[in-house]
Design goal:
Layout: H1 12-28, E1 32-34, H2 43-66, H3 73-101, H4 107-119, H5 124-129, H6 139-152, H7 159-167, H8 170-181, H9 185-189, E2 193-195, E3 198-200, H10 212-239, E4 244-246, H11 250-266
Antiparallel strand pairs: 1-4, 2-3
Helix pairs in contact: 1-2, 2-3, 2-4, 2-10, 3-4, 3-6, 3-8, 3-10
Length: about 270
């Protein structure tokens, strides 16, 4: 369940939607990926599945981080921005999978995109040890991939997403989130309070009434993530040999449920 401290600054409709996404993450979660012996003959299926499991895990934990932003409102912007980049990554793969299955992209190019998505890095010490480490995909390329994905799949987008995007395209929303995440004007005033007695620097900043400025792009990112993720998963499952994916056992699920319950109670 989503942090109840968010209720005062979120409409009942948005709170229900935000709470709904935890069940969507749980439905898609797999506890274990086990490569098959035929892995070498089904590299696309295995590589794409590895990417999808990793990107789902990242998206899920960014979602959980966002729902705890009452502790530090700035974390909400940081989580929303990173979540949007994560959604961009899965949209980028979805668009190129679509091209590949439409015979508009060859297998080598698709494998290169998956390699860069899974293994890409600019971290110098890593590249010194492993010179063949591919370059990662630029974040702005990933953000623009969301618009490309929407254009390709536009007829399947919900009306509320299309309405919001007409008024504030993805790149514009991402730029706003980035401004708050950076240590400049918007990034500094986000944690300050202005009043007649002066400027207050509270030890515990409160969530502001304009919380929708970060909530709206975050909810859109969540919606689009699942659309793009499901598209990729269904395509790979239908066209390729996937590794074996295990759900949590009843015992593991019970242990994790207890942990989540007590973690929430302590918080």
């Amino acid at each position: 369940m989503v942090n109840q401290n968010l209720k005062p600054v979120i409409s009942p409709k948005d709170f229900v939607e935000l709470n709904y996404y935890i069940t969507e993450y749980d439905k898609r979660h797999f506890y274990r990926l086990r490569p098959r012996q035929s892995y070498i003959n089904s590299m696309l299926g295995h590589h794409a599945t590895f990417f999808l499991m990793g990107i789902l895990q990242r998206s899920r934990f960014l979602y959980l981080g966002f729902t705890e932003c009452d502790v530090s409102p700035l974390l909400g912007f940081l989580a929303a921005r990173a979540h949007m980049e994560t959604t961009g990554a899965v949209c980028h793969v979805a668009t190129n999978l679509s091209k590949y299955y439409a015979n508009k992209l060859d297998l080598n190019k698709l494998q290169e995109i998956l390699d860069r998505s899974c293994l890409g890095s600019r971290y110098a010490p890593l590249k010194e040890k492993q010179p063949d480490t591919p370059e990662p995909i630029n974040c702005l390329t990933l953000i623009d991939a969301i618009d490309t994905f929407l254009k390709d799949m536009g007829k399947n987008s919900s009306d509320d997403i299309r309405t919001v995007l007409r008024n504030a395209p993805i790149r514009k929303q991402y730029d706003f989130l980035s401004e708050v995440c950076h240590p400049n004007s918007l990034g500094l005033v986000e944690n300050q309070q202005f009043g007649s007695s002066g400027i207050i620097f509270p030890r515990q900043p409160k969530l502001k009434k304009n919380f929708n400025s970060v909530l709206t792009p975050f909810l859109i990112s969540c919606k689009l993530f699942f659309v793009a993720y499901d598209y990729c998963f269904k395509k790979i499952k239908a066209k390729e040999e996937m590794p074996d994916l295990d759900k949590e056992s009843l015992v593991e699920n019970f242990k994790n449920s207890i942990w989540r319950f007590f973690n929430r109670s302590i918080a």
